Amino acid sequence: xxxxxxxxxxxxxxxxxxxxxxxxxxxxxxxxxxxxxxxxxxxxxxxxxxxxxxxxxxxxxxxxxxxxxxxxxxxxxxxxxxxxxxxxxxxxxxxxxxxxxxxxxxxxxxxxxxxxxxxxxxxxxxxxxxxxxxxxxxxxxxxxxxxxxxxxxxxxxxxxxxxxxxxxxxxxxxxxxxxxxxxxxxxxxxxxxxxxxxxxxxxxxxxxxxxxxxxxxxxxxxxxxxxxxxxxxxxxxxxxxxxxxxxxxxxxxxxxxxxxxxxxxxxxxxxxxxxxxxxxxxxxxxxxxxxxxxxxxxxxxxxxxxxxxxxxxxxxxxxxxxxxxxxxxxxxxxxxxxxxxxxxxxxxxxxxxxxxxxxxxxxxxxxxxxxxxxxxxxxxxxxxxxxxxxxxxxxxxxxxxxxxxxxxxxxxxxxxx
Length: 417
Description:
InterPro entries: Cell_Proc_Reg/RNA_Proc, DUF6382, FHA_dom, SMAD_FHA_dom_sf. This protein has eight helices and 20 strands. The chain is 42% helix and 19% strand.
């Protein structure tokens, strides 16, 4: 772990991790600043009030500790982490850099949002032994592995036990992982080949089979001719039936017309008798209902009318605790969001608990935690930022939300209730 203050800052050009400059390691510093090595964060040396700082560009990336809080870690990720560390050690050695400069603290290891590539940072003058930092990293990842996966837990503890040996080598652990992966790949290939061999072989056609096909074809042709003859007879019969149906339709139409005329005449005769009755009914309906009259006596108390009073409630005391609702305030067809669990991720990813389908939203844009009926928001180093009441929320800063706060994820605005 680095023994200097680490500051996370964000400006118009991106997000940065700032660490004070070390003294007495000019060669490692020159190599770090001049060469853009693969797998490392871009870094620049800047001065603030005469004090030098290394500015590591972490835009579009999440630190490992943040990534482990929003994602489930499996053994594949742990193995990929070990292989990436070994590859980076080889790159540092090829460029004559001290491998102990590699930072393995979960807050200084980053994962890209786009393709989950693991990116590291180097710090000239870092004196912590790499083997010790690797052991602490494996101990940290053991607590983040999905313990429902028994195979992942078994392999993870086996790797951690190897780091307890004082003479262990990270490269040896990497070689065992690669060998185990090749064994799994060969086992899958063998299983696939056995499945193909167990399939039913393709039958070969001989002359007898072809002869049977020719006979069946001739039988089909003769049957088809008979079918076409029957089809012609059916067409003539169908035309005769249609002519008979046409006559019947005309007959029923005439009967229907006569019935309608008779029904109309009957209704006119009956209507003359019903009109007086209908008017009487209407008059009865219009007559007001008689109400019981109330008689007051001198000795009876006069009832007092109860006046309902609705006191005005102060807006600040109306909601003691927020309800956890993000009400959309915009012109696009976006829905309101409700925080229904203790921790929710907000973003464009399909597995995000609160999904916002918009191009300006990052895959995992922000995170909201609920604790004791209070809500806390944290930006996940999103590309376009998270704003609270038009104030940019810095990376790794957790802020408590209050009722009627305006939250803006990039250009999507919500009101927190």
